[in-house]
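Notes for week 9. Today we move from apo structures to complexes. The key idea is that a small molecule is not decoration. When we ask for a structure prediction with S-adenosylmethionine present, the ligand SMILES becomes part of the input, just like the chain. The input block below holds both the sequence and the ligand string. Read it once before you look at the output, and try to guess where the molecule might sit.
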Amino acid sequence: MAASVLTRFCINKSKDSIRFIQRRYRVKTKWAATRPTFPATELALHNFDTSYSIQLRDLWPSIRVAMLSEQKYGALINSFSSAPNVITELEAQGCKDFISIDCTRNEVHQSSLDSMTPHRDSTELDPAALQPSMSPDIKCLVFPKGDISRFNPARPDSSGILGYYLLDAASVLPVLALDVQPGHTVLDLCAAPGGKTLALLQTHSVNHLWANDLSGSRTMRLRRTLQSYLPKEFLEENKIHITSTDGRQLGMTEEKSFERVLVDVPCTTDRHSAMVEENNIFKRSRTKERQKLPLLQTQLLLAGIQATRRGGNIVYSTCSLSQLQNECVVQQAISLAQQELGITMQVQDLRWWWKLWPEAYPTAWMSVVCAAYLKSPA
Ligand SMILES: C[S@@+](CC[C@H](N)C(=O)[O-])C[C@H]1O[C@@H](n2cnc3c(N)ncnc32)[C@H](O)[C@@H]1O
């Protein structure tokens, strides 16, 4: 009975009353024709202005400028290539390895640890416990601060292996934070197009790497990247397993299998969304997908937690400043891991990390500003 009433009448809400009117007399709002269409980049920027001006307060204007400035690339040196003089030639152009240059690192590290101490909650690691030893094998060269010169395309060696891979310099930070040690089995849950996978392999510590991505076409890109940067023999050694599956399932199927898990989730890709119209997640047609991101991110992080062995580490990273996609996701995933899986995680906020690399700043702001490092107690 109630259903038949609902199909014949609809509710008309006016200012202070609700009336039922027959469906055939209602005037349907024509959203598609009457709603103004704004470029997705404008919607993105409006959204960021509204939320980040509250979240980041005085910092937002300068971060906004950084976000709208030309992207600064880094050249991730490919140690599998025998192309001669790659580093020397880049240094001759004024580039430096941003991972090793900062001599004040320890000073900054200490002050960063001090300044964050009062804000820690009970689930956070003691910052002193987070001293990932940075792999000396990862080298990423950048032009000096303020210099946005473009890199020449990488040259191949005699076997066709390219000398460096261009990426946002800050993309290397989650890999450094993962702290891969010799013999580790590593899962890269959302791996395509493969910049971080390649950086993981530069450590020469990975015993076995599983690189996964849901998108078939992006997984093909990942495969092609690895073929251009790794010797054929290395790829034939079965050290790398590439799959294209929903990462949310790997938590159950690969439970407690990895010492290190990288969860580099799909997100609102803030810089891209503010600058590029094509494939923009702020397009009206992608509204639902955008709204579901925090749920997807939580499920992916939970899967990553489940796939980690006791005592292992997980790094969660996004290229968004959104608290909803960063802190909230991490908090939600660790509480679900506790309640549903009985796994207790300790969490470390990695925001202080970007202070270690002033040369890469402000790039670091944009890519991994809210990465988190989670540790499963041994
Ligand atoms: C930020 S990108 C990863 C970038 C990559 N880590 C790199 O460094 O090149 C996020 C990726 O997550 C993938 N993705 C989206 N949903 C997924 C899911 N349910 N499971 C696994 N991967 C997913 C997307 O296809 C996209 O390639």
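The chain is about 40% helix and 15% strand.
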